[in-house]
Amino acid sequence: AQSVTQLGSHVSVSEGALVLLRCNYSSSVPPYLFWYVQYPNQGLQLLLKYTSAATLVKGINGFEAEFKKSETSFHLTKPSAHMSDAAEYFCAVSGALFEKLTFGTGTRLTIIP
Amino acid sequence: DGGITQSPKYLFRKEGQNVTLSCEQNLNHDAMYWYRQDPGQGLRLIYYSQIVNDFQKGDIAEGYSVSREKKESFPLTVTSAQKNPTAFYLCASSIRTGDGYTFGSGTRLTVV
Q1: How many angstroms away from the CA of B40 is the closest CA of chain A?
Q2: pLDDT averaged over chain B?
């Protein structure tokens, strides 16, 4: 079975600072990994996905994530935070192409002006 | 444009009443999912369907029911047996898991 742990339910960064949201996974097989973003009272939007191609994955809105097998991690980063990045972020994992996703509990990102 | 439509956006229900949440997709996706979201608990899977006329229970199916009579539709009924139904409900679909899910904009259900 697959699982994912997001470290830090709340993260605050200053505008212009580095954003780092942590995600560690557990999977018995090579995983498919995803990051989603959710704005208040909206559905989730796919930011980026890892599907065994390049280990550094670039997504929308300037976000990227690096798959590190040795650390079982898939942390999300953005070099410079913008006020519009304030949202909740979810990491998700799947162990097979047609297996349903398992979501983390989410990290709420606050941007300090 | 293709996507998932959930309706209504806000729904109020009296205790003891059943209510049905609509989810329609025009993406030609085979799989559809219902999640419940509560503050601090992330997304919890209620039901999912990988093909028409077939569906499986998720982690918190008690008090809920679904049907999948058409590929594009996956309605969720919240029954009176659900003890704490007030929550944000999200519907999603996928052609295959490796492509990720497409989510609807959600329905916020409040029991009054």
Answers
A1: 7
A2: 92
10 Å CB burial of residue B78 (0-12, 13-18, 19+) is: buried
Rounded Cα distance between A62 and A58, Å, is: 7
Which of B6, B96, B100 minimises the CB distance to A34? B100
Identify which of A43, A97, A51 has the alpha carbon closest to the alpha carbon of residue A74.
A51
DSSP code string of B74-101: --EEE-TT-S---EEEEEEEESSGGG--
Q: Is the peptide bond before B39 cis (omega within 30 degrees of 0)?
A: no
pLDDT of residue A96: 74
| Calpha distance B25→B49 (Å, rounded) | 13
CA B27 centroid distance within chain = 16
CB A90 within 8 A of CB A5: no
Q: Which amino acid is at A71?
A: E
pLDDT bracket for residue B44 (50, 70, 90): very high
Cβ contacts below 8 Å, chain A against chain B, sum to 61
**Which pLDDT score, from 0 to 100, does residue A97 have?**
67
Q: Which of A9, A42, A98 sits opposite B40 (nearest CB)?
A: A9
Query: Between B44 and A2, where is the model more confident?
Result: B44
Cα B41 → chain centroid: 17
Task: Name the token pair of A100.
Answer: 């349903």
Q: What does the alpha-carbon distance between residue B92 and residue B46 come to, in Å, rounded to a whole number? A: 12
Contact A91, A6 (CB under 8 A): yes
pLDDT, mean of residues A74-102? 91
